[in-house]
Amino acid sequence: MQLTRRQILTSAALPWAPNRPKIAAIITEYRKFSHGQHIVDRFLEGYGWDGEHHHPAMDLVSLYVDQHPNGDLTEDRAKRFPGMKVYKTIAEALTSGTGKLAVDGVMLVGEHGKYERNEKGQTKYPRYEFFKEIVKVFEASGRVVPVFNDKHLSWNWEWAKEMYDTARRMKFPLMAGSSLPVTWRTPSLEFPTGARVEEAMCVCYGGVDSYDFHGLETLQGMVERRRGGETGVEWVQAYRGENFWKAYQEKVWPTELVEAALCRSHTLVPAREGFNNIFPTLADMKRIVKNPVAYRYKHADGLMSTMILMSGLLRDFNFSAKITGQKDLFSTQMYLPMPDGRTTLANFFSPLVYNAELMYLTGKETYPLERTLLTTGLTAAGVESLFQSEKQLKTPHLGIRYQATKESTFWRS
Amino acid sequence: MKRIAIVSSIYRYLSHAQHMGDRFLIGYPHEGKWHKPDVQVVSLYVDQKPKGDQSEERAKEFGFKVYPTIAETLRCGTDKLAVDGVVIICEHGEYSKNELGQVLYPRHEFFKACTEVFEKDGRAVPVYNDKHLSFSFEKAKWMMDEARRLKFPVLAGSSLPVTWRLPDIEIPLGSVIDEALMVGVGGSDPMDYHALEAMQCMIERRKGGETGVKSVQLLEGEAAWNAPYSKDLLISALSRSDTPLGLTETDGRTQDLVRTGELKRLVAKPAAYLIEHNDGLKTTLLMLNGAVKDFTFAAKVRGRGTMSTQFLLTPVPNVTYSACLVGKIEEMMVTGRAPYPAARTLIVSGMLESCLQSKQKGGEKLMTPQLSVRYNAPAQSQHARR
């Protein structure tokens, strides 16, 4: 019998249901608004989902926290949730001190915390190192369980590829990525499956080796649904500062797509005093955006994608695309309830956690890992292009082909 | 191109008149485009000119005139009605309050000044009235009767019914609704009005349409918690909130505010607005200042279980929800038809006034035969979803 997602979750939520999965969380830090806090708290406290306060049908039984900065919440949570034990090593967290893998799923959150930055500006978050530790336990125990990796796989492409290959070789489900592909959209639109698309764009904000990844995931979560599916990326070129504006004026990317994306924003900084919501001219943009960045890249099937960071001008993620045969441009906003004064909860973590839960319960990835492998490589390539004076870089290693899921996986219920 | 007049209380940065009026001047985001309106602002009336007044500045830049009276504004200095539509935005400005705590915005007076011109000049044009029609149901009713007598379309109300919803749900037309509940925040009477209208735009889609309001009661404090509304609906509505306060502010945690009891701890002055409709439907607005900062809704819809959503109020200063509303105003000005009934705003204006009277009488239940306003919801959804 084929069970629906809701049936799976509801049946497993019954207290007498056997095999309530045990989950270990391996995180860099547990501080207010760190990714670790957003994610682990949702397992412990539950969260608003589908019109109720949903409690995951599983138990987060062990926790490893790599750093304990000021405001560390580990102790507080451990005290309030005695079912969750805190361990000093990743191996102990996974084995619960038994010497053998003792959990049914792993949540890896290697975001936030004090880690070194390299000369390219990449923060060396230890996702790969954590992953290796996890795999060591799998190997020693002769058993594997699903792993969810928050954000990109690694800042280092080779390591990311190794993580992907390891999961495939050892046959354990691995999911990864950003909240952007799974959050609300305003309007609540899905990219038309099988459409031919000529140009795609994400206009967003934030820094390099940080929100650029979210912008790339925004794009990829949409264009992967095009005719033929994803075919991989042939080259990437970054633009910054003056070069960015020059490229903008020379229409290296379609400016009408930038404009369409900006028309989906809820946070445009007013270009003129006394006006609350005015469309910026190019001169306005130049004045307002101090350090613009673009990653432009060519997919193997000819699609051109552009991810633009316009910090200062807006604080949201907006997607637009030129779809063959459609008169109007396609556009939407990937809406993030953001606790930077706008909300108190970062509820875009809810659909991310929900998808992880589905994987822990069913053993199936709910959306393709290849998406995040590709965006991991694109992030690294964008950073590399910036580092190499904005040179166009060939990316034969990003010849990653995959198909999107039939079903939509963004937040609609 | 249709010519419109804006009749406002004040035109100052982030006043309703500015953030809505400006959209007719500089365009606004609409269905993925920066839409240049098919209407032209030709005249403006401002009732007050506080510090920061922008009326003259806008008139100069956009080539229209500010007139000293509403009649002159509608006639653009000629002796006959010279516009194709009127946008009344009487919100903000210094006006006194009555004993019910209602701000005495002269919306009825503004409207009357317009209908006097329509009558004298033998022509009537569409009128948009921002927010509720009047603090007084009697005056609001008179406004609607005048519109019917002089045969011009009226659009009115809040932007909550037309903004984005998270999730993007609509109650199927003709559904049987067993109970509905709205959570709102902010002061009375501006924000309770918005919340009541948000709830009304959902429940008016029920089987038989709106049948009018039989009675209202406003309970405060412990009585509000003990009011006969469904706790499940409250849990459901709050599950749609992105802004729980208290412990979430302290350490970022998610919260089940109802079951943990935090809700009662956070809300010092809860208020329950209990509305009983003529067809038996009971609905409740809970104003829960201190617990959350957003507007959420839940209803028991037969055959569909509980349906719930958040009415997304997008951030200041863009307040793009007002662009959703301006889109509707423009639609009426261009087509000559109101996309949804102002009877919704009429009944909500009356509900609010009666609720505030109940509050003044210590929470007495008041029968409201005057609120037997019947109307049907538009078949098509009117909120932002494209």
Summarize the entry for a quick read.
Helices cover 32% and strands 20% of the residues of chain A. Chain A has 413 residues and is α/β, with parallel strands linked by helices.
Task: Record the SSE blueprint.
The complex is a heterodimer of chains A (413) and B (386).
Chain A: H1 5-13, E1 22-27, H2 35-45, E2 47-49, E3 52-54, E4 59-65, H3 74-80, E5 85-87, H4 90-95, E6 105-109, H5 127-141, E7 147-150, H6 157-170, E8 174-177, E9 184-186, E10 197-204, H7 211-223, E11 233-240, H8 241-249, H9 255-262, H10 282-288, E12 293-299, E13 304-309, E14 317-323, E15 330-335, H11 349-362, H12 369-387, E16 393-394
Parallel strand pairs in A: 1-4, 1-6, 4-5, 6-7, 7-8, 10-13
Antiparallel strand pairs in A: 2-3, 9-15, 10-14, 11-12, 11-16, 12-13, 14-15
Helix pairs in contact in A: 2-11, 5-6, 6-12, 7-12
Chain B: E1 2-8, H1 16-26, E2 28-30, E3 33-35, E4 39-46, H2 55-62, E5 65-66, H3 70-75, E6 85-89, H4 107-121, E7 127-130, H5 137-150, E8 154-157, E9 165-166, E10 177-184, H6 190-203, E11 213-220, H7 222-225, H8 231-238, H9 247-251, H10 257-260, H11 262-266, E12 271-277, E13 282-287, E14 295-301, E15 305-311, H12 321-335, H13 343-360, E16 366-367
Parallel strand pairs in B: 1-4, 1-6, 4-5, 6-7, 7-8, 10-13
Antiparallel strand pairs in B: 2-3, 9-15, 10-14, 11-12, 11-16, 12-13, 14-15
Helix pairs in contact in B: 1-12, 4-5, 5-13, 6-13
